[in-house]
User: What shape does this take?
Amino acid sequence: MDKNFKSGFVCIIGRPNVGKSTLMNKVVGQKIAITSPKPQTTRNKIQTVYTSDRGQIIFLDTPGIHKAKNKLGKYMTGVAKNTLKEVDVVLWLVEPTTFIGAGEQHIAETLKGIKTPIILVVNKIDTVKQEELLPVIEAYKDVCEFSEIIPVSARTGENTDDLIKTIFAYLEEGPMYYDEDTITDQPERQITAEIIREKALRSLNDEIPHGIAVTIERMRERKDGSCMDIDASIVCERDSHKGIIIGKQGAMLKKIGSEARRDIETMVGMHVNLKLWVKVRKAWRDSDIMLKNFGYRDER
Assistant: This one.
């Protein structure tokens, strides 16, 4: 290994829906974190690993920092805030607008007193003209003590190479924490559950997705290696939501299942036999026991 090999941990923060997961997926070149136009898509701290000749960056994609409304919300913001203390570099993603709303101000408050280098990443530059970027940078430059400000497009990949180069400039020489072919520390079961949740988020009405979780009951490869059998449950909070998730003559559940199956097959590299059920667990987002059962364990 090169004696100048650098390594470190980088936390990606930002308001829900600014493109954190899209950026991480783009950098590692594979879908790890789920993306959706709805906020609060990411609920757990997801580690993805970028390795090159220069070194290794372990990205922590945290849940969006926001004011919590229930125990799930408190868990999510707790994960994000604690991660800030564990990393070598913080990337704060914002949208290319001069309006600095309450969400951004809340994050700026959270970042006060943090000694870690903070890189402001202005994302979605593919949606604005180049001359519109300067006022955005001007509006943000004094909000926090930024080490760097870098405009990128996570969707198209524009400037992401520059961002990686800049991150390495702030990392010190260090070990390779993961094998070079590792791109995530997430178990397959967890990614499978997240893929199913993503398809549900993309297909359902606004008020339902926040109240759903996905549990994998069974995930087993057949002895001949021809197929992976997966049984999973979509958990919702109300009987009325159950009907919507199943849909007329099961059409919605079938749609979620077939879209999820395609992504899961790509991940596991074989045919997948996916069976989905829908269960009602009232107010699960405010139940400590159910939050733990659904994988939201407080690691602090």
Remarks:
- Confidence is low (pLDDT under 50) at residues 34-44.
- Strands lie at 6-14, 46-51, 55-61, 89-94, 118-122, 148-151, 213-221, 227-236, 271-280.
- The two ends are 34 Å apart (CA to CA).
